[in-house]
């Protein structure tokens, strides 16, 4: 581990950056981490972050770039009507990405980031009626707070936005897009990414358990409830210098394996 203190590391990652630039750096970092952990889908899927300030703008990836290529300075800025405000690479944005992410940012101002994946395990679980099964400790983080949205085809119909946000609800941060993939959201980019990393592992374990064809140990519902509350408590006590300790650990990883995200 680096000899830097937590404060030193935060200053190195965000050197006197205004808030909007810090959001850009975090969003680019999330793209690189999705690529690093093999959760990307070529140039498809998308992560967005609300631009701080009074205007309802959000940042998203330039359409056509692999996630590991994305740089903070090259993110596309859009408004909720689909108008591109800034497009440094002149590549536009994924139309389906606009549909999904404009819906989230327009309806849920509490959510600063929305992250969508098409992984093998995520698509597999989204294609089942059972959803996330409460069969292990990791899964109990998602014992509550998970919504589902019925598949309507590739998300190009803007009328779907209303149904999507109605299905998400007013407080949930996890959305299973039926027969399609997964979405996580957060009050920060770090929260949305960490939820997706954990949710992806849950899906992988669930598929492995079901594939084993062995009897499954059930967990008492009261234990499921208490473990879910424990997860919430750990999230609260894991803050370091205004950031979640796990997010700072991921940023330290990127400094070693993919530092171009900050450019």
TrEMBL record:
Pfam families: Aldolase_II. GO terms for biological process: monosaccharide metabolic process. One of its GO terms (cellular component) is cytoskeleton. InterPro entries: Aldolase-II_Adducin_sf (IPR051017), Aldolase_II/adducin_N (IPR001303), Aldolase_II/adducin_N_sf (IPR036409). Signal peptide: none annotated. GO terms for molecular function: actin filament binding. It comes from the Bacteria. Residues 25-207 form the Class II aldolase/adducin N-terminal domain. Belongs to the aldolase class II family. NCBIfam families: PRK07044.1. This is Ribulose-5-phosphate 4-epimerase/Fuculose-1-phosphate aldolase. It comes from Neptunomonas antarctica.
């Amino acid at each position: 581990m680096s000899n830097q203190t937590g404060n030193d590391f935060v200053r190195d990652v965000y050197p006197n950056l205004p808030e909007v630039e810090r959001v850009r750096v975090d969003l680019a970092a999330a793209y690189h981490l999705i690529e690093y952990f093999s959760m990307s889908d070529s140039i498809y899927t998308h992560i967005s972050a609300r631009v701080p300030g009074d205007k309802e703008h959000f940042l998203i990836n330039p359409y056509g770039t692999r996630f590991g290529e994305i740089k903070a300075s090259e993110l596309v800025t859009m408004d909720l009507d689909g108008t591109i405000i800034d497009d440094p690479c002149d590549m536009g944005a994924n139309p389906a990405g606009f549909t999904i992410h404009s819906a989230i940012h327009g309806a849920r101002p509490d959510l600063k980031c929305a992250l969508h994946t098409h992984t093998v395990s995520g698509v597999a679980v989204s294609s089942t009626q059972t959803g996330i099964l409460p069969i292990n400790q990791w899964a109990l983080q998602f014992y509550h707070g998970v919504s589902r949205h019925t598949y309507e085809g590739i998300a190009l119909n803007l009328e779907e936005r209303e149904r999507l946000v109605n299905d998400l609800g007013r407080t949930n941060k996890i959305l299973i897009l039926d027969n399609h993939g997964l979405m996580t959201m957060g009050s920060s980019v770090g929260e949305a990414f960490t939820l997706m990393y954990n949710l992806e592992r849950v899906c992988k374990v669930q598929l492995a358990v079901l594939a084993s064809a062995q009897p499954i140990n059930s967990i008492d519902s009261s234990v499921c409830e208490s473990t879910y509350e424990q997860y919430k408590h750990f999230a609260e006590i894991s803050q370091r210098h205004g950031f979640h300790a796990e997010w700072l650990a991921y940023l330290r990883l990127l400094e070693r394996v993919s530092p171009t995200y900050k450019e």
